[in-house]
Structure formats: structure tokens, C-alpha cells
Input
Amino acid sequence: MTVRIGVIGAGWIGQDHIRRLTHVITGAEVTAVTDLDAAHAAEVATGVGARALPTGQDVIAAPDVDAVLVTSWGPTHAEYVLATIAAGKPVFCEKPLATSAEDCLRIVEAETAYGRRLVQVGFMRRYDAGYRAMKQVIDAGEIGVPLMVHCAHRNPTVPASYTSAMAAQDTAVHEIDVLRWLLDDEIVSVQVVTPRRTSKRLEHLQDPQIMLFETANGVRIDLEVFVNCQYGYDIQCETVGESGLVRLPDPASPSVRSAGRADTAVVQDWRERFPAAFDAEFQEWTASVAAATAPTGPSAWDGYAAIGDATVQALESGRIVGVAMKDRPAFYAGGTAGGTAR
Ligand code: NAD
Ligand code: ISE
Output
């Protein structure tokens, strides 16, 4: 069976996933596309032989759409995910699942009431070979019990629409998700420390930020979020255990020696950094839709657990803020990860 997919939002990642679904993975075709910019949606749709539809609701209702991909702006995700659940169709939602814990919980409740998992969240790092190798090392006990994790999440620049709260809601969600999965642990408190601000930022923005998390098992995590670092898209993670440490590898890149220097390029964005992870994520999701089985990747519950309300409060108050999560419904039992994306 070829899964017919409708896409809501044809911006950077929408177009990249449309390319992936059309040319890279097997078993999927894009049949419908919408975007606030109708002319742009028409252009993107024509490029892959799909229809352009006026709204997201039209995409969700379309009879030639078996499953929905939400790649619009974060604040619009909840509305589309809820409407797709109501239509009884599977939905892959790029991160964040929603921009508040309240909206994430509405999705969790709607999916639980529907009685079957329909939602997968785009936390693609769980599919990255480097993170998977780290998890194997930790799970095998090779570094002993994890004690500390040092992370950095750096982007070269961000657009003017990026706010200080998005450092938590849009950027650090990746680390919160992947650390819950790596450590099989939950974040219980957070503090945000604000260093001197870079001059290479828009006036409204606190950048960088240092987020200090504590987990239920007492692991301490420091995460530097620096979204105007200028030099590249740089994701670092080092887990220190009782008897060793494991460090996330950088992407393979040749070292070039020329003119008296040895240089290694730094990738510039998420497309260059995680291409294989995105491909694996979509191949597995498409297969689950085709088989009419529950998605195997990060769930709506994982989307809720990663959302950064407490981190935003910590930034705004300057205090240590406790993370008050609801009890996980039995519906989402089975660890902090979805399924095979462990
Ligand atoms: P973008 O601004 O390039 O694209 C978003 C598109 O959605 C725009 O074309 C916009 O017109 C459209 N849109 C907005 N609201 C809409 C609505 N209500 N209905 C239809 N279309 C709408 O942004 P982007 O970089 O492509 O990011 C999109 C989403 O993907 C965000 O949630 C972002 O966090 C996520 N993302 C994830 C990763 C990752 O590493 N997994 C990387 C980039 C972006
Ligand atoms: C963006 O939306 C992503 O998901 C990128 O992976 C992340 O690095 C960036 O900070 C986000 O804004």
C-alpha cells in the first residue's frame, strides 16, 4: 500500500519532508499540500504532482489523504493535530507538539479518548546513529551510572520571529526529549542562567541561555542554547558516569590540509546534521501507517513531557522551578520512548 500524505505548512522543513517522502523513502506519496501562502503551496504541490488545498482542515478531510504531516508554525500545531485525531487519521507533527503543556495535554486526552495511538512527534534525534550509539553505551553500563550531562545546542542565526521563550519551546525540546530517552529518566526541576548577551542578536532576545536541569534520579544536566553563534549548527552532548564518559560524535567530515591549515567544516543546519535520522524516522512512520499499527516513535506523551513551560517560567523568574507533570496514562505505558526508536 502507498500511504497518501497531506502536508500542512510548506516552509523549510515541510519542503524537505516532501522531498524525502517523494524521492527518498518508499511507500509514501504526497497528495495534498496547503500553506498560508497559497501561491507557494501551489508551486510546491505541482512539483510533486499533488493538489494544493486552501486550508489545513481541507487537507485533513481530503479523501485522498490517509495521513497528515503538520509542518506549520508551532502555535498552529495543536489545532491541526486535534482535528486529525477527530478525523481518525494518523498524524506526524513536527516538534513542538504544541507550545504549551495545556495544549499538549488536550492532545493526549483526545488521543486517549480515541482509544488508539495516532500521533507521532518529530523528535528525530532518537533515530540518529550517534545518539543511538550513546544510548547503547549507557544501557550496557559501560560508563557506570550516569551522573552529569553537558550539552550545547547552537544555531548560526535565528529569524526575527524567534523569541526568548522559544529557546525552551522550540530549541531545547530536542534535548529534553532525547535526554529523557537516553537516561530513561524525567526532568524534575529547571533553572535558567543568563550570561552576557551576544551583540549579534535582535534586541528582544536573551541569547545565549544556560539551562540547568535535574532529573528524578539526581542527574544534573547543563544545556547551553546559543541560537546566534554565527559559526554553524553545532550539537554537543557528553554523558559522564561513575566510571567513564560517552560523547556524541560530530558528523563525519574530512579534514582538509591546505595553505598551512587543517580545517574541518561545521554543518550549517539541521538538514545537514540529521539527514539520515529524518529518513529513518519517516520510513518507520510510513510503514506503521501502511500496516495500520501504532506509530513506533515519540508519542503525544513525549511531546507533552518535552514542552518547556517550566523552563520559560525559570527564565522569566530567575528561580529554580519544579516540573509538575501529570501521571502518565496507562495508554502510553512502555518507557519514555515510543517503540523501536529506542
Ligand atoms: P517555516 O517558517 O520555514 O515554515 C512554516 C510554514 O508554515 C510557512 O510556509 C508558513 O506560511 C506555514 N504556515 C504557518 N501557519 C500555517 C497555517 N495555519 N496553515 C498552513 N500553513 C501555515 O518554518 P520551518 O523551519 O519549516 O518550521 C516549521 C516547523 O518545523 C516548526 O514547528 C519547527 O519547530 C519545526 N522544525 C523542526 C526541525 C527539526 O530539527 N526537527 C527543524 C526545523 C523546523
Ligand atoms: C528548529 O525549529 C529546529 O528544530 C532545529 O533543530 C533547532 O536547532 C532550532 O533551534 C529550532 O528553531
User: Anything to note?
Assistant: The chain has two domains: 3-125+275-300, 126-268+304-332. The domain at 3-125+275-300 is CATH 3.40.50.720 (Rossmann fold).
